[in-house]
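Extended Data, panel c. Modelled sequence:
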Amino acid sequence: MATTTKGGDMKMKGFYRQKKGSGVSKSKKISASHGSLHLKDDFDKQEEILRQFDMNMAYGPCIGMNRLNRWERANKLGLNPPKEVERLVNAGGKVGVECLWDGRV
C-alpha cells in the first residue's frame, strides 16, 4: 500500500486545485466587426435573369445543354419560358450561353 507524505499530499492538492475567479466575472466587450454582410454577388440584370432561368426547374433539367437549347425545348413543350431569356442568349454580348451549372456538376 502506498503511503504519502504530508508534503507530497500538499503538492497533489495544489496540482488539482482549480483557480478561482475574482468573484463576479466581467463581461468582455465584443468589438463591432467591420466586415460586410454583403452576400449577394454583383451580377447585372441580364445575368440575374439568366441565372433565374437556370434555377427554375419548371422548364426542365438544364444539365448537359446550353441555355438556348433548354429554352427551345421548354417552348416546344408549351412551358412558356421567358422571351427575355431567348433574346438575351441570341443577342450574345457578355451574357453566357452555357447554363449556370456547366462545368460545376
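The first helix runs from residue 6 to 16. This feature is highlighted in the accompanying rendering.
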